[in-house]
Amino acid sequence: MKFMKLGSKPDFFQTDGDNIRYVTTELATDVAVNVGDVKFYLHKFPLLSKSARLQKLVAITNEDNDEIHIHDIPGGPAAFEICAKFCYGMTVTLNAYNVVATRCAAEYLEMYETIEKGNLFYKVEVFLNSSIFRSWKDSIIVLQTTRSLLPWSEEVKVVSHCLDSIASKATIDTSKVEWSYMYNHKKLPSNGDDSHWNGVAKQQMVPKDWWVEDLCGLQLDLYKRVITIIKSKGKISVDVIGEALKAYTTRRLSGFSKGLIQGDVVKNKSLVETVIHLLPARSVPCSFLLKLLKAARLLECGEVEKCELIRKIGQQLDEATVSDLLIQAPTDETTKYEVDMVQSLIEEFVTHNRSAQTDPSMETEFQEIRSPRLSDTSKVKVAKLVDSYLTEISRDPNLPASKFVCLAEMVSSFARPTHDGLYRAIDMYLKEHPGINKGEKKRMCKLMDCRKLSVDACMHAVQNERLPLRVVVQVLFFEQIRASASGGSNSTPDLQGSIRALLPGGSHGSSRSTTTNTQNGWDDVPTAEEIKALKCEIFTPRLGEVNGGVGSDRNGNPGATKNLEKVPSGKVKGMFMSKKIFSKLWSSKESSGEISSSNTSESPGSSSNAEETKSTRSRSRRNSLS
């Protein structure tokens, strides 16, 4: 710490109790100066020779009264005592802790060069400019002391000089940083543990965010001004600015890391709102922004700040994790988690994606840099994130199906390679909400594309007793097509129009299309034996592939018959059970008058098959693997 000694005479000031100060000299004192609750017994000559204000005060006092009063001097009795000792020529030491108070007191007492050359005002200015403002740590200490001396410290320009000094040093080239600083929050990368190379000490590189921790001790108003000036210089990257704000929030907001905000609510609220406004776009991890959002909700911050924070989170939602999104709802709400808030985040992500596609150059009022267009990878990450989030919140028995569907539909346009996550979420919701009505179940299941289920998911789905019949048929149908394609065959099963009606779009199209008959098959459940038989056909080789066979009757290969003879009769029977299942579904639709005349003439099964199906129609429930 820098310091400056003024004067050379010994200190003759004495104390009598807590409120009396006097000078022990051969001459009797001739003036009493009351500063606050402390009385100083001094001599007029040394004081009046250096202070124009004291000259004026003595001039207006009565000749019979040698007492003057000073109640509003900045720095109080301590600062006045330093000024008085300087007037006597006694030794005083200036440092970063008392220099601002002395500077303001000298300004108050009008101790200028016009009164006497080399006066206190001039000497303090020299010390500030030659030592204090050139020192990193002293500038920070001085800036902290200015808060108790407002508005004087602002009027004498000490605050502005400190801010400029700190900001200039923080933005200097790191190769020119030669002073000490505090840096504990991150380890520097090093090439091994050897600090020497060929016997010569290696120079440790200064990190770009070297100044972050030293500024965490500043009060919020001063910190805000420092960061604002640093940002305005344009020399520091947004990542470093974000790291600084992240460190300050963690240090100053008690319990922030654990999600439990403690301390003064008003101060904490002001801190969170200030940090939200100072944060540049994409400068901190999404997890930190979500913690900040939780704090903003707990502290009841303004809607403007929360909306701005939601906008920033939405732009980088692809970085979030499920645990980040699981924000506990207030106790007065029915749901366990803040689903509406997460919905707002997803809406912002979708809106940002749409805006980037229509007008990539569009910028909002709060954006410091242009946000990049979202990649397909980001969309896939968000879609998977929403699937996992839905799985977690589905455990909440009070979660309405409408909210589940709304969240899922928001990312339905994001193409993802698999729908296993969405299927898992749907299955979890159906498991935890067995009383869901038919319409809600249909709307929920139609979100899933059965063609994008993995083999394991398909195996689970066809045995899942919670799924509607229509979904099971779709899963089996598309898995049969996949099995045919993997076996080298491009053919698809020949199904009646009535059976196709149970498939998405009534054909081989997207599973998201609406069928002409939307009610049939949503409540029906096939028997366990029929499901097992159809699975046998899908997940076993085709007849032409059994025992190395390379043909089929359809292709006119005589070897197919021979290969067929080698297949056990039970397996052959299972391979043709799917036709009986579709026949049963077709028959049920025909009996209810739902099939056109052109389709009723083409029954997919013979009468003997119908009898056999009838005899094996046991309503066994399917087993669930979830």
Describe what you observe in this structure.
Keywords: Phosphoprotein, Ubl conjugation pathway. InterPro entries: BTB/POZ_dom (IPR000210), NPH3/RPT2-like (IPR043454), NPH3_dom (IPR027356), SKP1/BTB/POZ_sf (IPR011333). Residues 616-626 have a biased composition (Basic residues). The structure is a single chain. The chain is mainly α and 626 residues long. It contains 28 helices and 9 strands. Mean pLDDT is 78; it is low at 187-199, 360-371, 494-500, 506-520 and 541-626. The strands form 3 sheets. Strands 2-3-5-4-6 form a 5-stranded mixed β-sheet, with helices on one face. A two-stranded antiparallel sheet has the order 1-7. A two-stranded antiparallel sheet has the order 8-9. Helix 8 (158-170) packs across helix 9 and helix 21 runs parallel beside helix 23 (528-538). Among the domains are: 3-134, Potassium Channel Kv1.1, Chain A (2-Layer Sandwich); 322-355 and 375-449. Strand 2 and strand 3 (20-23) form a beta hairpin. The chain has helices spanning 44-48, 52-59, 76-88, 99-108, 120-130, 136-145, 152-155, 158-170, 220-233, 238-252, 265-278, 286-298, 303-315, 322-325, 339-358, 376-393, 401-410, 420-432, 438-445, 455-461, 469-486, 497-500, 528-538, 559-566, 569-575, 577-591, 597-600, 607-615, and strands spanning 3-6, 13-16, 20-23, 31-35, 38-42, 67-70, 92-95, 196-197, 200-201.
